[in-house]
Give the backbone structure.
Amino acid sequence: MIKDRVNQLLQERQRGFSLPGAFYVDDDMFEADLEAVFATDWLFAGSVAEIRGPGDYITMEIGRDSIVILRDREGEVRAFFNTCRHRGSRLCLHETGRANRIVCPYHQWVYELDGSLINARQMPEGFDRASHGLHPVHVEVICGLIYVCLAETPPSLEKFRKTVTPYIAPHQPDRTKVAFFSTIIEEANWKLVIDNNRECYHCAGNHPALLVTLVEFALPDDPAANATFKGLMDRSTARWDGLGLPHAPADGGTEFRCIRLPFNDDCLSFTMDGKPACNKLLADFTEPDLGSVRMFRVPNNWNHFLSDHILHFRVLPLSANRTAVKTTWLVHEDAVEGVDYDLKRLTEVWTETNDEDRILAENNHKGVRSRAYQPGPLAPSEFMLNNFADWYCTKMADWAGGPGGRRIAAE
Amino acid sequence: MIKDRVNQLLQERQRGFSLPGAFYVDDDMFEADLEAVFATDWLFAGSVAEIRGPGDYITMEIGRDSIVILRDREGEVRAFFNTCRHRGSRLCLHETGRANRIVCPYHQWVYELDGSLINARQMPEGFDRASHGLHPVHVEVICGLIYVCLAETPPSLEKFRKTVTPYIAPHQPDRTKVAFFSTIIEEANWKLVIDNNRECYHCAGNHPALLVTLVEFALPDDPAANATFKGLMDRSTARWDGLGLPHAPADGGTEFRCIRLPFNDDCLSFTMDGKPACNKLLADFTEPDLGSVRMFRVPNNWNHFLSDHILHFRVLPLSANRTAVKTTWLVHEDAVEGVDYDLKRLTEVWTETNDEDRILAENNHKGVRSRAYQPGPLAPSEFMLNNFADWYCTKMADWAGGPGGRRIAAE
Amino acid sequence: MIKDRVNQLLQERQRGFSLPGAFYVDDDMFEADLEAVFATDWLFAGSVAEIRGPGDYITMEIGRDSIVILRDREGEVRAFFNTCRHRGSRLCLHETGRANRIVCPYHQWVYELDGSLINARQMPEGFDRASHGLHPVHVEVICGLIYVCLAETPPSLEKFRKTVTPYIAPHQPDRTKVAFFSTIIEEANWKLVIDNNRECYHCAGNHPALLVTLVEFALPDDPAANATFKGLMDRSTARWDGLGLPHAPADGGTEFRCIRLPFNDDCLSFTMDGKPACNKLLADFTEPDLGSVRMFRVPNNWNHFLSDHILHFRVLPLSANRTAVKTTWLVHEDAVEGVDYDLKRLTEVWTETNDEDRILAENNHKGVRSRAYQPGPLAPSEFMLNNFADWYCTKMADWAGGPGGRRIAAE
């Protein structure tokens, strides 16, 4: 019945317009999202910099599920459902922590960092520990970015890996450390949070701090771009070519996007004055003028890779109208707070921007709930919302399996 | 299916008793209310005194809808769904404000005060602005009271207008200003809030401040009324007849009620001592002893028109168990706070009374949720609850279209 | 349809494992619990010590129902639905109080303490007060413990009464007074709260204060028990036999459990040092070394009867993921605070323990919500969870009436 409803809404959807309102606000469509999207696709979970040593872990909530992502004794990144195999208690209770082994707080069942159950006191002779290990979750690490997949058989990530690695690897994300981490809750559907990120049409009216440095154009050949931008683009790409750093838009289809774009003239980083936020540059960079690699991947992740720091954003759906947005600021692993960087200066632009975006997404959600809402026409500068909607509708169609699905998927 | 349930409950309803409990507490009946009542009928939205100048606006939440009511450049009152035609953001974010034009906070689409879209930056050549104006909402203004209707084809308000105008017009509501405005949230169904207002059976036990001045009888010929009231009534009506002010109960059927009733002997206004709250009387009144015109209209509005101030109450359903009650205190447009009136003195009686009523409605809601609740018998002094229930059941029957509906509607 | 779902889940249930997750977390299963369990069975409501005089009352919330339990003028304990027969207002608004008569706060209908309506002002001639008394709730008092049943025809309590009386009566609960009362809200399903209480497998890792005095073994012949416990048990039972105090496990089937067990060596009461909490012992005890009678009864009650105080715990379901736990500490009616007992000393062990259990139950609930949860194997020391699950599944099967029900009920 819920699949019939998905198929009906997919029939109503028109390309070039925002989605039918039910996709954004209805509880049953949120359940469909959890099954069709979040239980099947790769999800961004964090950076290896968040779990540098054995036993370091982070947890991630997706709807009603909690996942624990950790580094095992051999240095491998692993992920498990954060649910004990005994009576189901949560195991790791914090957003981040370190554990020699995973010990259930309820009855102290003990799991190795590879998920195997190694002790379950008071269980009788003959209890089969081997069949009571933690339920594993698939993990892939791409240049230090951790992706997890809840599905039994995950889709391939190889095109993504192969395509984005040349852009990201030079910034050496695996030689970074966490400078700051923030969590905000937005009273809005996760797709409205993503929509908000997928265009800069709203920037001029809402993001004064961000626009000190960020260029509003998403593509080198943006038809709306002016001569100033074209000149800046030409100078920048010549310099990056000289350094062997890729910059052209990658072909990610509707699944991902990767591109290097310059900051505004004379700007080098996301700061209030455009000067670097961290004097110790990433990798072994000596050139601070690297713009930023903007990398987005469905359904829940965007990033900026700069010369002096890296920003990861992960979007976690909590309910139809609640979404967590977690932001990580990474700097060179040898950078020293107070010496190489000032924390307020490093974080203030995106802290403000996140909060501005939260208000926009929340008001968007409120308005979409109204009977007066109808899908509205997207501007050319919102082309990435169309990409996202195409991808989303294809996922939903695959899941729901109806004729509406086939129609969209075939487009 | 929801209509079947409405029809079943209508069959169970007995006149002279409170309603079957599901009408008050069930989520699906709240959805039915939004469709059958709030999407079809005229709703009280406020006073013209709240939007005196061009661009002044107020917003009103009805369930999941938000409506913006404003005064346009020609001085006309207009109303629109508060949802942008682009991607659906809320437009006006405050309860009250002033706007030269309506500019969407998200992407700055600009709407004229007549709702037409006059600018949508970045939209391509050929974009049809004319078909993307704000969705209008019907508006009627009756002696300064603003009513809106979300339906495409609203019912007639002419009988109401014609009937109540002689009672209200002499108080000249369009020559008033807002002295105070309050919003309270009651954890109770909107119909329990209305029920609470429709009888004074509960006054003696709960409203000490109100009963300093308010008479508990609802009709001149109330069979329960004593000789004191009859004498007061006779003296009052003689005086009002001399001033040409109508007072007899109007024939509003189940839709509205309008009557002028005296205050207790020697009392002139809703104050703790019965003396006027504002020394500058409304209109050009010189006689302060005008009692009050009590005017109620389904589904969400009651009012008091006194010699020295006007009170509007609007009831806004938020969910099955949450209701906003907004109260406006109006005084003569030339009255000066601190000179002609003291704000605490003006507002304290109804601020206390509202809070007392909130507690009563909330405890009523809690009790109705119990399996032990069954519709109980109404007292003669609760005759207006019966009128309200008759009206409500007819609306629900019209909407649900079942035989239960026809039965009630035919009574 | 909800019954079909119950039957399906009952088919999935395996003895020796925790329950299928939906029973713990789904809203519709909570509704089924209210009907199948809480509307049919006897529920612990409190102690007679809480309502010592005529008109003393306590209220109890069960799902959406509120019950008032009071002592009438003749000293009898009575219970009623806490809902007025007029328009359904809650009547008694506090957790505990005293009322000469029950007067509805809304319109002052007056009920005698026997539930009869004795005054309903403004109701017309001929109004039949006799048919508008409060809806009664069945009450049984067993050694001062009050049980209520919302069903029209309650099941028999005689086996329970007959069996537990010899254990409890010597402690003379009807000669006690309330020393302290606490309410905590746990964000967990009520069955997870009960599960938590039904085993001490979790004690070692979580209850440092409790384990100062509590023995972890649930039965005299616990196969896991060590020589120390066996010696303690032998010495204790010899002493209790000498005093004529029963101690052997009673045969309560899956419905109740009653047993007297010793505290740890040299420990007499639930205190941080094991010494008595109240110097005035209960009844006319002179021997403080009485261990505690541990008495549990489905669905919502466990207790400890010591030489110096009594503890009652009542579990009240509020929604699928919210449960109130109320704890009462009773001491001898003549004990004087500050002289015979210190309140902090009396209450600190179980105040801490309750809070520790709250956290365990809440994390259990969170983990069970995950798609990764599957019923896990119970340890031998969790045998009482199996008893509880057997009882619960039989109740659900009786209510749902499907083949799954019959299968379980026949086991």
Notes: The interface with chain C takes residues 18, 21, 195, 201-202, 204-206, 224, 360, 363-364, 366-374, 376-381 of chain B (CB under 8 Å).
